[in-house]
């Protein structure tokens, strides 16, 4: 069966996020107030062929660790739809 | 009150996603099988100061339309935590 797996990869909370800071500046320039903080990361959607949601999540976990995220700078979260 | 708003910005389904195709190639090279399709987009987390979740979502919606996404190539989804 094919499962849709959503992976969110974000910069670690302890680190600065220059892209997020740039977006904050952009929002202020557009006159959009009320945004206190912005963090920008990646969102990856996988179509995984597996026999159970647990196995689909295991494949996504391995993909995230080996290729999609850098543990020094990023953390990831996986949701199987 | 401060609301955490999650915004997912992904390439439109009708369009090719070269970054996703590159990730698929990378996964195959790593020997990770079972992944049929990959789409890569952005994930943005906003801390929004608003008086209701509806207003926080409205601010995120305006930010997404004006700055964070390009309607020609991308769609976005907003979730207020």
Features:
homodimer, 81 residues, alpha+beta, Mth169, Chain: A, 3-stranded antiparallel beta sheet, 2 helices, 3 strands, elongated
Strand-helix topology:
The structure is a homodimer of 81-residue chains.
Chain A: E1 2-11, H1 18-29, E2 35-49, H2 53-68, E3 74-80
Antiparallel strand pairs in A: 1-2, 1-3
| H/E element order of chain A | EHEHE
Termini separation of chain A = 13 Å
Mean pLDDT value of chain A: 96
Our Rg estimate of chain A from Cα atoms comes to 16 Å
Q: Assembly type of the shown chains?
A: homodimer
Write down the domain tally of chain A: 1
CATH superfamily of chain A: Phosphoribosylformylglycinamidine synthase subunit PurS
Q: What low-confidence regions of chain A span 5 or more consecutive residues with pLDDT below 50?
A: none
CATH C-level class of chain A? Alpha Beta
Strand content of chain A: 35-45%
The CATH architecture of chain A would be 2-Layer Sandwich
Overall SS class of chain A: alpha+beta
What's the β-strand tally of chain A?
3
Instruction: Enumerate the strands of the largest sheet of chain A in spatial order, edge to edge or round the barrel.
Output: 2-1-3
CATH fold assignment of chain A: Mth169, Chain: A
Tally of contiguous helical segments of chain A: 2
Largest sheet of chain A: 3 strands, antiparallel
- Indicate the overall shape of chain A: elongated
Helix content of chain A: 25-40%
């Amino acid at each position: 069966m094919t499962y849709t797996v959503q992976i969110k990869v974000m910069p670690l909370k302890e680190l600065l996020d220059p892209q997020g800071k740039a977006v904050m500046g952009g929002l202020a320039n557009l006159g959009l107030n009320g945004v206190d903080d912005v963090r920008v990361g990646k969102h990856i959607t996988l179509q995984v062929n597996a026999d159970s949601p647990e196995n689909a999540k295991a494949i996504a976990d391995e993909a995230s660790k080996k290729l999609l995220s850098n543990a020094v700078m990023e953390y990831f979260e996986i949701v199987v739809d």
